[in-house]
Request: fold
Amino acid sequence: MNSSLKTLAMWLIIGVIFIILVSSIMDNSQTKMTYSELMTAVNNGTLEKIQIESDGTKAYVTLKNDKTEKTVNIPSLDSFMNQINDKLTAQNFTVEMKPEPILMMLLSVLWPFGLLIIFFVFWFLFMNNTQGRRE
Reply:
């Protein structure tokens, strides 16, 4: 029983490390755009669509000549909307609010509890090993 818990704990650690590595590899520079590049695209009229996250900190931009979706960090949603408000009527692009996925919301709530459970599993394993070896 004790060795199976150690094996499970080791696979949990390997899984967490794998997820962190994959997420860092997937976050590349081809899918990012700076705020100044976004404002240049707004002024040039090369935007097709803007989706703003529900918290207003990021926008997902699609350009007319490039169909890949790019991520932009927005410093202030109010100032951004004021800057592009006159361009909305003159140019043909849409601004939408992007809802937060339910899975991401659940993970953000459950993540601290998962870390706590992993901590207690390791604590139980190590305390159990040290108490059983009295010579």
Strands lie at 47-53, 58-63, 69-73, 94-98. The longest helix spans residues 102-132. The first strand starts at residue 47 and ends at 53.
